[in-house]
Write a structure and sequence with these properties.
With 129 residues, this protein is of the alpha+beta class. It is 39% helix and 19% strand. The protein has a four-stranded antiparallel beta sheet, with helices on both faces. The radius of gyration is 17 Å and the shape is flat. 19% of the residues are buried.
């Protein structure tokens, strides 16, 4: 029993140090984002990753793999924004994602929170603000 406890403790410590290293890498690369010339997709992904870390959600969502959403043409002012999302690390009954909406010219964040994909109205309402 004691051996299992030690193994579990080492496993958890390893996971924590990996997440810490991933977060530190993102924060270091975030310093390279130039806001004055518009925001590229790669810069938008860094901004989204930093926001995920800032909101203490990196343990829940897949920080190293930000994805650009392509099916947003029905949202207001979609062409002015990057839509970057993160999948949950664990599988649950209702799939949630963490979505960050970033203005392409300024880099400002319009929306940053988790929501269930089937509740798209939450995102639509945020885009109308």
């Amino acid at each position: 029993m004691e051996e299992i406890s030690v193994i579990m403790l080492l496993f958890l410590a390893g996971c924590t140090s990996v997440m810490r290293a991933e977060s530190q890498s993102v924060l270091t690369r975030y310093k390279t984002v130039v806001f004055d010339d518009g925001i590229s997709l790669e810069e938008a992904k860094l901004i989204a990753q930093r926001e995920l870390i800032r909101q203490n959600e990196a343990a829940i969502y897949d920080l190293p793999r930000p994805q650009a959403a392509a099916d947003m043409v029905d949202l207001p002012r979609y062409q002015d924004h990057w839509f970057v999302f993160f999948d949950e690390r664990s599988i649950v009954n209702i799939k949630y994602i963490f979505m960050v909406v970033i203005h392409k010219k300024t880099g400002s964040i319009q929306f940053a929170q988790d929501y269930a994909e089937e509740k798209r109205w939450v995102l639509e309402a945020a885009m109308l603000r």
